[in-house]
Structures are given as C-alpha cells and as structure tokens.
Amino acid sequence: MDQRNVPIYEMLQHYLDAVPTQFTIPGHHRGAGISARWQAPVFRLDVTETPGTDDLHAPTGGILQAERLAAEAFGADETYFLVNGTTCGVEAMILAAATPGRKILVARNAHKSALMGLILSGAEPVWVQPEYSAALGLTGGISPAAVEAAFAKAPDAAAFLLVCPDYYGVCSDLPAIAAVCHRHGAMLLVDEAHGAHLHFCDCLPPDAMACGADMAVQSVHKTAGALTQASMLHLRRGRTDTGRMRAALHLVQSTSPSYLIMTSLDFARSELALHGSAFLRSACRLAQSARTEIRRIPGFFCPGAAELVGQCAVAAFDPTRVAISAAGLGLSGFALRARCYDEFGVDFELADERYALAIFSYASTAQDVRALLTALRAIAQSREFAASPHPACALPSFPPACLSPRDAFFAEKKAISWSDAVGAISGETVAPYPPGIPVLCPGERITQALWDYLENCRKLDGHFQGPSDDNLNTIQVIAAD
C-alpha cells in the first residue's frame, strides 16, 4: 500500500468540492460560523457523516482505506480509529475480552480508564503489582513470573491488561508475558498509550503488536502529529473476537465522530510510515544529549537505560522520556516543575515526589534543550531551594476488595472525613494525576499504608482525579459498611 496516501483527507476534499452547499451539522458550516478571531482553513474539514464522507462505525470508503493503511504501517491485522482517546480503546478491549463476573488480570498501575472498563463490563479484576525501585523512586515493570502467579490464583482469567511503556518509558518483557498469557488460553491486552512511535525506529523498544499482544491501544496524539483524543486500536486475529470488538466500540465511541481527529490520524500515520525512523532518531539523540548534560549539573539526576534495564522487571526503556530529579538540591519534582514553569517558561508533562518528566518527540528542537538546560543550571546556581522533599513512596500493596468495581459504583455512599477513612470501604476512585493511575478503587478497603501514601501526595499539593472532593478532605465510602 502507498503510505503517502491520506484517504480521509482526499475523501473530504472531494466532498467539499462536489457539494458546495450544505444543510448539515456542525452549525458553523465549514468554518463560516467560526468566530472571526479563530478562523482557520482546517475548519472546512469539520463535517459530519454523509454519503460522501463515510461512517466511522461502519466504514466502506475513505475511513476504511485509512484504517487499512494504518494496520499495515503499525504491523496489525486490523486497526480502528478512535476519536474518544485511548480511554475508549481500553474500555473496548475489556468489554471485548471479558463478560460480567469473568476474571481479568489487570496491572495495578493501569490507567483509570481500566477501572471504567471494569465498571462497564462487570468483569472482576485480579490485580498484578509492578515492581518498584526504592533507590530510583520509580515503578518498574511486571515480571512474567508475577503474571504466572496471578494465573495460578485465577486460572480461568480471560485476559491480562498491562501498561507498556508507562509514563516514564519503562517496558516489561512483553514477549515472555504474551507467552504466559497464551499458554493459559488468555489474551494479552496492552495499554500502549505512550508507545505509538515505537514501531517506527529500531532505537526504541519493540511495540506491543511485534511482541505478541492480541490487542493494543495507542494515543497517537501523545507521541506523533495527531490532534488530542486521536488514538488507534490495533488487534491480531485469532484470539480476538472482532465482531465483539466492533460492538464494544459502538458502545464507547461517539456517534458524532470528529473528522478533524480522523484526518489527523491519517496524516500522522503517513508521516510515521514515511519519515518515522529519521524523525525518531533525532528525538532520541536530543533526549540523550539532554540527559547527559543534566547529569553534569550539580544536584540533578536523570536515570536512563543503564540504571533501569535489568532492574525491577524492566526489560527495555524508551529514551525519549527524560525524568529529572533535583533531590540533590532539596527540591521535589513538584517544586522543580513549578520553578521551571514560573521562572523560565519551561513546562513538563508531569511531576511527582522525586521527578519532573520531560517528553521528547520528533518535534523537539535543540533550542528546546538549550532552554531546559538554561533553566536547570540557573536553579542549581540560585541556591534558593525549598525544604527537603518527602521521600518518594512505593505504590502500596493493593488493598482487600470487598465489592467489585461495578457493585461499588452503584452502591449507596456517604461522605466522611479523610482523617477517619482508614478501615472504610471506598465508594470512589482516588488517582493522583498525572499519571492518572488509581491508587484506590471503588469497593476496596482503605488500609493504613494506602492512607499514608495518599496523605503524602496530599501534603505535597498533588492533584487527584476521581474523588468528589478534589482536595481529599472528605471521601465517599460505602454507606452500608
């Protein structure tokens, strides 16, 4: 197939030329009704489903051609375009893999979208804990042995869902994990939100499809040139029920899909297929040069493959993720991010107790690196440091589950003081964000270790998603407990 083609864009251009008058949604009518302060030619492509623009939910024309080009480019048997982000892809994978009451193995560091999929499907999670490096203050991978042990507890589990790579670029041993899953007759589902670029450069870890995954979902907007919410779901035929997958996507995808998002997926795929290797090599070089220079600044530390691979079940590392610690200066990751943003106009993707995380893409430049290094050197020389940060805490062991996520979601709840929460059954999710990983799920009893971990995040002014009280002064718990 010719990867230079962009079928969705070509289809829309033909439609716009052939049908100059429209009485359809959206109401701005090809950009004419967009505020004059925001006019742009791209709005002409914001159209709706008509005989000339195909249908995402039953494609036969340009969208189908674009998805087939993507499947070839990414090494999948089938690819589906997602306009509701990777969140809906994770939900769809769980819905397609597990029926109500069926067990499914889930990595405990899974994104909160996995919990949404569990609530929608009624599947019951069997959590698998990733390893943790106390020395580095980073979560590691999940070992094949841990997956094998989880299947021993739940031999009839339908699938295993894990995140690979994670936010920090950490990758588990996917080929070995795939072999474990398939030996138990289960599917391997991969939340590859941060790995849409991996397939296109041999200086990066191998992607999930190449490692034997049955399904993988990617946020193309996170690491390539697509609009926010633009994602893809790839699958391998054989163990996957493709009819069930299509039905699941009907359930979680918008009935008003954005043609701007789909067009951006089409162009992003073409750019990766044609130029991805060269572009991503440049990104890796820039990231490595930044890592090298950061290590030379007193008080800073920046782990790479040498520190990570081979430790704590880490099989590979994405070098485009640059985690920066200023703990040697007494600065938490939160404080480092705030100072870089407020004083130098340099922003990071996320911060935690120890690190601020910089993500390099093929759009990153040498000027970006110079700005980052200028900020870090100035902070190191200022000697105006915050109090010593709290030590980074390992993600606590998952607490006992008293109700399934679905049952807890629909149960009657009441609000109690966070200070009195130890021992209660949570009625809601608590996920420090970013990275959006649930530490506490609905239906789980709040242990002292878990309370201590979240209290540490709260004291550091971390942001939470999930609880009805954003500041976590109160929490919703199961009323009947």
Characterization of the model:
Helix 2 packs parallel to helix 9 and helix 3 crosses helix 8 (242-252). The N and C termini lie far apart (59 Å). The chain has helices at residues 7-18, 62-74, 85-97, 112-121, 144-153, 174-183, 220-223, 242-252, 259-295, 305-308, 333-344, 366-382, 405-410, 448-459, and strands at 78-82, 103-107, 124-128, 132-133, 138-139, 159-163, 170-171, 187-191, 215-219, 231-235, 316-317, 321-325, 350-351, 355-359, 413-417, 431-432, 464-465, 474-478. The mean pLDDT is 92. The protein folds into three domains: 7-271, Aspartate Aminotransferase, domain 2, CATH 3.40.640; 281-382, Alpha-Beta Complex (Aspartate Aminotransferase, domain 1), CATH 3.90.1150; 405-478, Orn/Lys/Arg decarboxylase, C-terminal domain (Ornithine Decarboxylase, Chain A, domain 4, Alpha-Beta Complex), CATH 3.90.100.10. With 481 residues, it is α/β, with parallel strands linked by helices. It has 14 helices and 18 strands. Helix 4 (112-121) links the parallel strand 2 and strand 3 (124-128). The strands form six sheets. The chain has a seven-stranded mixed beta sheet, sandwiched between helices. It has a three-stranded antiparallel beta sheet with strand order 12-14-13. A two-stranded antiparallel sheet has the order 4-5.
